[in-house]
Amino acid sequence: MLRRAVIAGLAVAIAALAAAPAAVGTELAPGGTFVDDDASIHQGWIEAIAAAGITNGCNPPANDRYCPDAAVSRAQMAAFLTRAADLPPTDAQPFVDVDDSVFAGDIGRIAAAGITRGCNPPANDRYCPHAAVTRAQMAAFLQRAFGFAAATGNRFVDDDGSVFEDAIAAIAAEGITLGCNPPANDRYCPDAPVTRAQMATFIGRVLGLSPLDVPARPVVVEVVARAAWGAVPASGTFTGHTIDHITIHHAGTVTGVTGPAQFRGWQAYHQSLGWPDIAYHLIVGRDGLVYEGRPYTAVGDTATEYDPTGHLLIVVEGNFDDSVPTAAQVENTARLVAWGSQVFGVPVAETMGHRDHAATTCPGDKLYALLHDGTVASRAQALLDAGGVQVLIGG
Questions:
Q1: Residue 302, C-beta contacts closer than 8 angstroms, at least 6 positions apart
Q2: Where are the beta strands (DSSP E) in the chain?
Q3: Rounded to an integer, what distance in angstroms lies between the CA atom of residue 352 and that of residue 349?
Q4: Within this chain, do residues 196 and 266 fall inside the same structural domain, yes or no?
Q5: Is there a contact between 41 and 178 (Cβ–Cβ < 8 Å)?
Q6: Residues 14 and 92 in one domain
Q7: What is the DSSP letter of 354?
């Protein structure tokens, strides 16, 4: 009972630590601490144990990855338990196979605390630090570390005969495990390896933590910089403006030349008209990539009668009176619309085609249809709702 009392006090302290960022108004960065757990249902628990100092990550020294799907090794389990239970240091080391482990000290601590006996009975002079921990073994580790009382009943149908059945029952009674086959949850999967993501949830529940809310990570659009596609410097003087429209164009003509060679031709032609630069701010190529045009702080140009002042001009390479834009082109057009909406405050539903402002068929019937029927706007809104879009101009 003494261990349970100590752990209860520790849980209160750790819970306060985990809650501290929210208490001072500090939120997690979009996507959270680690870059590889966004798709994990355990992400909030991973953040909770990270805030409590129980995990640092799996790729030191950067430690920007958690490796959520990797199996927990017995050595890692020792580290998790040492930090979660705040075990005291010891010089004792009963095992002969851990000297090369960075977790040797943690292994010694859990041995001194009676949490592990070893992996090769009856000698038990080895710990097997690199072996994966099964869910059944994990139950035994947690029961011993936190002193959970024995439980009655037979919660799961697949652990009969397991030497760890009582430990499994104990952590189930404590609400630490629900099972492995939701929604029925009548199975525990005792022989399956426990993943690092699952371990975060188990430890979080043991300590009475709550999963943290993680803001969604924005979708990133890598934009090919002007220098990379061979743009020449602008000539003449730009006119500044404040963007309050998003307007979609298409190239209109198809010459057989595509990509950077095509864009260099557009720029040369536009400058021959006396314009300072290529007319558009952003280009969506036939390859699906996005290319940097003139600065969006500068008014674009047009050979038609409308005034493009205030318009973010996005051109999609192709003639969409004759062909259909590719899925990649539609997706990146929607991403740019979402980005333009979040940066300039233009509602995605107000995205227009060139023909909405001038007597032209641009951006082509087939692309315009995707603007008119809400395909582009609905995708852009979904991106905004899921965390937004970040545009990065590369080299």
A1: 279, 308, 354, 358
A2: 219-224, 245-250, 282-284, 290-292, 311-316, 352-353, 389-393
A3: 8
A4: no
A5: no
A6: yes
A7: G
The model's pTM is 0.71
**Segments forming the whole domain that contains residue 245:** 219-393
Q: Could you check whether the bond before residue 193 is cis, i.e. omega within 30 degrees of 0?
A: no
Q: Whole-angstrom Cα distance, residue 78 to residue 118? A: 12
One-letter identity of residue 82: T
Decide which of 206, 229, 262 is a domain's last residue: 206
pLDDT of the chain along its 395 residues, tens only? 334 444 444 444 444 444 444 333 457 888 899 999 998 999 999 999 999 999 999 999 999 999 999 999 999 999 999 999 999 999 999 999 999 999 999 999 999 999 999 999 999 999 999 999 999 999 999 999 999 998 877 899 999 999 999 999 999 999 999 999 999 999 999 999 999 999 999 999 999 999 999 998 899 999 999 999 999 999 989 999 999 999 999 998 777 789 999 999 999 999 999 999 999 999 999 999 999 999 999 999 999 999 999 999 999 999 999 899 999 999 999 999 999 999 999 999 999 999 999 999 999 999 999 999 999 999 999 999 988 999 999 75
| Tokens linked to 76 | 């890692």
CA distance linking residue 355 with residue 372, whole number of Å: 11
List the one residue out of 314, 301, 362 whose CA is nearest residue 340.
314
Residue 86's nearest CA partner among 208, 207, 210 is: 207
Name the β-bridge partners of 393: 223
**CA atoms of 2 and 10, how far apart (whole Å):** 12
